Amino acid sequence: MAQEASFDIVSKTDLQEVANAIQQAQKELGQRFDFKGSKSEITLTGEELVLVSDDEMKLKSLKDIVEGRLVKRNVSLKAIDYGKVESAALGTVRQKAKIVQGIESEKAKAIVKAIKDAKIKVQASIQSDQVRVSGKNKDDLQRAIALVKGQDFGIPLQFTNYRG
């Protein structure tokens, strides 16, 4: 009997790299001429990022600084889930962003459905915040990886625990 091969589709963000990027962004914020005297700040608490600035234009610049630093540290921008811009104290604006960890059930269902619809001879199942794909043929597993990589599910995906 052929051995069953499998791999997991996960979405993990390296929080240490995010923290390093935020530190660099804070440093840049302190040195930028266009932010002198501004009430702008970037804070990271656990898996939540909070951007505060004087107005929406400055907030957008702040976001650009943060995103530039994240990209330099190989953190996918899909890992940042921005909330809406809201008014904050002293006439400032604030925007919160969640750092995506794990695959939420709606996205996991979409991944499983995409694999099933492609009629590849593999089984895809949701296991808490990841998707396990298994099958008898390694080529089918490779096709499943290529299929998932070829679609945009709105979050960064990694393929781990490959057992052939």
What brief labels describe this structure?
Alpha-Beta Plaits, four-stranded antiparallel beta sheet, 2 domains, alpha+beta, five-stranded antiparallel beta sheet, 164 residues, single chain
Structure write-up:
With 164 residues, the chain is of the alpha+beta class. The chain has four helices and nine strands. It is 36% helix and 28% strand. The strands form two sheets. Strands 2, 3, 4, 5 and 6 form a five-stranded antiparallel β-sheet that branches. A four-stranded antiparallel β-sheet has the order 7-8-1-9, with helices on one face. It starts with a strand and ends with a strand.
Helical coverage, percent range: 25-40%
The CATH homologous superfamily of the largest domain corresponds to YajQ-like, domain 2
Strand content: 25-35%
What is the CA-CA span between the terminal residues?
14 Å
**Overall radius of gyration:** 20 Å
